[in-house]
Structure prediction request, 272 residues.
Amino acid sequence: MPLEVRTTSTLSEAASLLQAERTARFLAGGTLLMRAVNEGDVSFSTIVRTTDPAFGRMRAAGGRIELGAGVTMAQILASRELAFLHPVARAVGGPAVRTMATVGGNLFAAHPYGDFATALLALDARLQLASGFGVREMALEEFLQARERGPRQLVTAVSFERPSDPTAFRFRKMTRTHPKGAAVVTIAALVPASGGRVSAARVALGAMAAQPIRARAIERALEGRPLTAEGVAAAVAAAAREGDPPTDALASAWYRRRVVGVVLRRLLLGEV
Prediction:
């Protein structure tokens, strides 16, 4: 089937085209879409792209960070302001993939991918969405829950508060193929401490469900506890009860439930 490529100068034009044409797909970095093209996917006939400079813009100074959905993992790795996100960006593929893979595209990556989306969930990110009816904001968690069945909207930007203490943000990915394999388990956590005890923790898990999820049982178990072996024991025990892990070629659901607590303990205690 022939493919038509339509280029717009603004994000609003691109959003309108996507809403008007049910067989249209948006091209950002192409790491997901072009694979579908190469594999002969015939579910779409139009590719929409944009040259709007806002799509790749970063505002990383100050307390709130805003990333255009077209910002690449390589751009994040080149930013000193985003140093706390470097381990996350580095977990997305190899160097060639990171020059193309985008923040927005990662939000649509199916299991067992989506490492950056997992980190953004732990950071309580909000999305800017454009459609033919205008622009609105949505919490990332809400977006992920409705990702497959929600209305067709274009993600144009992601924003979140910079952690006041960068060391409070932690990320760990377990994979069978280093350094760029798909995830067996991914964990991102924001664990601010007050008086040596965790306060208002946010923990997100990747590869433990069909999409990244908040781990609220882990969060509750961490609240008011010190980040010591004894202090995190309840959270580690709760980890196996989170999510609905799939079985795939990388790992069984049973294995993921067995190993997620081990990965969580290492992340929280800073173990190798």
Summary: The two ends are 49 Å apart (CA to CA). The mean pLDDT is 94. Residues 140 and 146 are 10 Å apart (CA to CA). The chain has eleven helices and 14 strands.
